[in-house]
Amino acid sequence: MTKKTTLFLIIALLASSFSAYANGVDDGISNDKKPKKEKPKKEKSEVRTGWTFGILPSIAYDADKGFQYGVLSNVYYFGDGSTYPEYLHSLYFEAAYTTKRSGLFRFNYDSKYLLPGHRVKFDISYLPDALCDFYGYNGYQTVYNGGWAKKKSEDYISRAFYKSQRDLLRIAGDINGNIGGDWYWNAGLGLLWYKIAPVNIDMINKGKKPENMLPYVDGLYDKYVKWGIIPAAEANGGWHPYLRGGLSFDNRDRLQNTKKGMNADFFLTYYAGFGEDKGANSLIFNASFRHFVPVYQDKITFAYRLAAQLNVAGDAPFYINNYYNNLFIQRVLYEGLGGGNTNRGVLRNRISAKSYAFANVEFRFQICKFDIGKEHFFIGLNPFVDMGLVLHPYRLDQNEIIANIQQNDPEFNLDELSNYIVFDETKNVYRPHFSGGLGLKLMMNDNFVLSVDWAVPFDKRDNDGMANIYVKMGYMF
How far apart are CA 266 and CA 42, in angstroms? Predict the structure, then answer.
């Protein structure tokens, strides 16, 4: 794995052993939730009260993105401890940057007690990415040539061949309320601002030795724009305010480290378009079902998720289709399909389509529990299998693409087009993408989770058969 992942993992595991604690006072907020089923009483020593927080350095290194420096923290307030392990308020902060202008700046707030009877969540994030993955459309219909991006390969073109530059600003607010029993209504407002461009080669090459510099060649994103596959109106991004509403069912015993219960979400998101892509109004439907089955006490849990995202009306730009909608944002960014939030082991954004579905299946084993000071920890292992599937592909018309190439990219050899796109939809587009692996979890106080997942694709066309490692906060679902 890269130096970035290795260094981050070592520092994160060491730093997670330390956390600060301050005694809190009663916040005066009443508990207006529906009555919970009786649970076994916890020992007094296991209950957390007041404020507790974990702090981790966000330090990493990547040859293209440079040295990353920053900090992240998750702050919880448990009040008098009567709701533990459920917190009254959660505040998450993260700020990290690299010397090559890639990073993240994020604040996230989550509470079921700010407005009695409602869950309220707010997220504001700015995510600049100088080398964002772009692998074309429709999964296996787009040929992945790993050697084109590997410098030691005889077929090497550029390490940035499957990259583009993408900056994203996200402002999101969500709220839900109980309808009756375990059913809830959901509503949300938000704004996504995307800035899309070819990789800034000058910036990436700055300070590099001549032998390490990237060549000035078109990447796949540049070719898709020239070939008319990406319309000019959406090639550079745009402003997209959105409105969201739906229903959910939730009888889980807890939000983090869930041991039993089900959670199903059904919601619609309307996106509007401004800027160059004013016509990008679209309606997207999302459905998700998560089920947690206790196998042996609280030591082993079987968990799975089934999910789908469908573009039911309008014509959303490719970057909106790549954004996987969630009612309540937990992780920094959800992208589909491929990567650490949907199809682990498969390249991020490898499966780009108008509509898609995916599934995650895993066993969650609790290996050991221990205390450090007043903080309670456990270590878990999670073997898993993931699957992603295209439901509604982009239309790739061979004659239209050839005409655009002849007009806008006349130097391109049309005999090489088959090295980029396979014009046989029935054989390639709908073939599922499978992957599997093993996860390591370090949890503090049943809420703060450091997650390390190792995954490998079952088909070499998804990542040359190479394994990926993901270091993130929280369970994937």
Answer: 35
For residue 22, pLDDT over 50 is answered with no
Of residues 145 and 424, more confidently modeled = 145
- Tens-digit pLDDT profile for residues 340-392: 889 999 998 999 999 999 999 999 999 998 888 888 898 999 999 999 999 99
3-state secondary structure (DSSP) of residue 222: helix
- d(C-alpha 166, C-alpha 320), whole Å: 12
User: Rounded CA gap, 84 and 50, in Å?
Assistant: 11
Confidence check: pLDDT of 112 > 60: yes
By DSSP bridging, strand 448-457 and strand 468-473 are: antiparallel
Mean pLDDT of the chain: 85
Integer-rounded Cα radius of gyration of the chain: 23
Q: Is the dihedral of CA 238, 241, 245, 249 positive or negative?
A: positive
Alpha helices in 189-308 (DSSP H): 201-205, 220-226
Angle at 76 between CA 300 and CA 443, to 5 degrees: 25
Burial zone of 398 (CB within 10 Å; 0-12 exposed, 13-18 middle, 19+ buried)? exposed
Average pLDDT estimate for 260-269? 96
pLDDT 10s digits, 171-204: 999 999 999 999 999 999 999 999 999 999 998 8
Q: Which amino acid is at 323?
A: Y
Taken as a whole, the chain contains a residue count of 477
Closest CA relative to residue 8, chosen from 72, 92, 99, 76 = 72
pLDDT in the model for residue 38: 45
Q: pLDDT at residue 54 above 70? A: yes
Query: Strand 300-314 and strand 237-250: pairing?
Result: unpaired
Long-range CB contacts for residues 115-118, cutoff 8 Å, separation at least 24: 115/175, 116/29, 116/30, 116/31, 116/32, 117/32, 117/33, 117/177, 117/178, 118/175, 118/176, 118/177
Closest among 192, 125, 127 to 165, alpha carbons compared: 127
Nearest to 454 by CA among 438, 443, 442, 440: 438
Q: What is the DSSP letter of 417?
A: G
Are the C-beta atoms of 324 and 342 separated by less than 8 Å?
yes
Which residue segments constitute the domains of the chain, with CATH numbers given? 135-473 (2.40.160)
Task: Sort strands 433-444 and 103-111 into parallel, antiparallel or unpaired.
Answer: unpaired
